[in-house]
């Protein structure tokens, strides 16, 4: 039976709206208690140890508690796009992605549906699904809810967007983002303290990979994020340094209404090497393209 208590007075995310999503009300995340998915398909644009050759089984959930002004997935983050499904159908989707050869099940922006995701994963596993479960998140998560995922999630894939609360307030309307992200990451690492890569396939089985998206003009803040990650976790987490910032509808934010320059990104990579980071992914070439944004056309849903 669905755990309605989590939806009736919803405190699943750090916004703590407290609204009754089970009656159709929506808070910051933009969705009710009904599961809404915009795409479920093989995805090839993640880190190599996630996508591999066969692709990651990415399930893109509608809604988001953060709403960054530069969001590439804004088509679904407001909760309007996507198809309503049952938790039973979600379990079937996991099975279908496994049948298609997916390396893993990649839950993209899933925090607003944690109770039903736990049920669906357990159901799929009871039917023989053995793929690693990846929790792909903005990093803006409640520790209390993350604890519900212990034994469910094998790989955490959080963003760590900002160290400066002034930036997080301006671009994500979340002044508390840095402190929340630190606490959330600590819980993720507690659950998955070391990265485990399968030697035969090169695919990740367990662990934490932290993504840092470099914002135009904010190399120093990105450096501060890297320093915190390495000083705190050393080689226990992998770091993914991303340069793919794509300016979309940012006329009200002229200071970031451009792509990241090659020099800005090189400065960040050089700094990572300087402080001793070795377990890291970097992006090469021109990745700031709309073509890297998938079609949210309900494929596989």
TrEMBL record:
Cofactor stoichiometry and binding remark: Binds 1 [4Fe-4S] cluster. The cluster is coordinated with 3 cysteines and an exchangeable S-adenosyl-L-methionine.
Any one GO molecular-function label of the UniProt entry: iron-sulfur cluster binding
Ranges for domain Radical SAM core: 50-278
CDD domains referenced in this protein's UniProt entry, alphabetically: Radical_SAM
Keyword list, A-Z: Iron, Iron-sulfur, Metal-binding, S-adenosyl-L-methionine
Pfam families (UniProt xref): Radical_SAM
Cofactor(s) required for function per UniProt: [4Fe-4S] cluster
Gene3D superfamilies reported in the protein's UniProt record: Aldolase class I
Binding positions for [4Fe-4S] cluster per the UniProt entry: 64, 68, 71
InterPro entries to which the protein is assigned, alphabetical: Aldolase_TIM, MJ0674-like, Pyrv-formate_lyase-activ_prd, rSAM, rSAM_sf
PROSITE patterns named among the record's database cross-references: RADICAL_SAM
SUPFAM superfamilies assigned to the protein according to its UniProt record, in alphabetical order: Radical SAM enzymes (SSF102114)
PANTHER family, alphabetized: FORMATE LYASE ACTIVATING ENZYME, PUTATIVE (AFU_ORTHOLOGUE AFUA_2G15630)-RELATED
Name listed for the protein in its UniProt record: Radical SAM protein
């Amino acid at each position: 039976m669905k755990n309605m208590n989590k939806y009736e007075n919803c405190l699943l995310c750090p916004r703590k709206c407290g609204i009754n999503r089970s009656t159709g009300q929506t808070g910051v995340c933009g969705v009710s208690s009904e599961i809404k998915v915009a795409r479920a398909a093989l995805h090839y644009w993640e880190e190599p140890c996630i996508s591999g050759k066969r692709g990651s089984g990415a399930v893109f959930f509608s809604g988001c508690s953060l709403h960054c002004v530069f969001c590439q997935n804004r088509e679904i983050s407001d909760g309007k796009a996507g198809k309503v499904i049952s938790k039973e159908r979600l379990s079937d989707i996991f099975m279908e992605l496994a049948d298609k050869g997916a390396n893993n099940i990649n839950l993209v922006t899933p925090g607003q549906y944690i109770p039903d995701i736990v049920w669906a994963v357990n159901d799929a596993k009871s039917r023989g699904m053995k793929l690693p479960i990846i929790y792909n998140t903005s990093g803006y998560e409640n520790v209390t809810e993350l604890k519900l995922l212990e034994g469910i999630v094998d790989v955490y894939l959080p963003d760590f967007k900002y160290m400066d609360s002034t930036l997080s307030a301006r671009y994500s309307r979340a002044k508390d983002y840095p402190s929340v992200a630190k606490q959330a990451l600590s819980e993720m690492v507690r659950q998955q303290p070391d990265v485990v890569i399968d030697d035969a396939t090169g695919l990740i089985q367990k662990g934490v990979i932290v993504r840092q998206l470099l914002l135009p003009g904010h190399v120093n803040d990105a450096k501060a994020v890297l320093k915190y990650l390495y000083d705190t976790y050393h080689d226990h987490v992998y770091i993914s340094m991303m340069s793919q910032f794509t300016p979309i509808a940012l006329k009200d934010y002229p200071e970031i209404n451009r792509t990241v320059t090659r020099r800005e990104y090189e400065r960040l990579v050089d700094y990572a090497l300087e402080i001793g980071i070795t377990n890291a992914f970097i992006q090469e070439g021109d990745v700031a393209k709309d073509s890297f944004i998938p079609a949210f056309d309900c494929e596989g849903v």
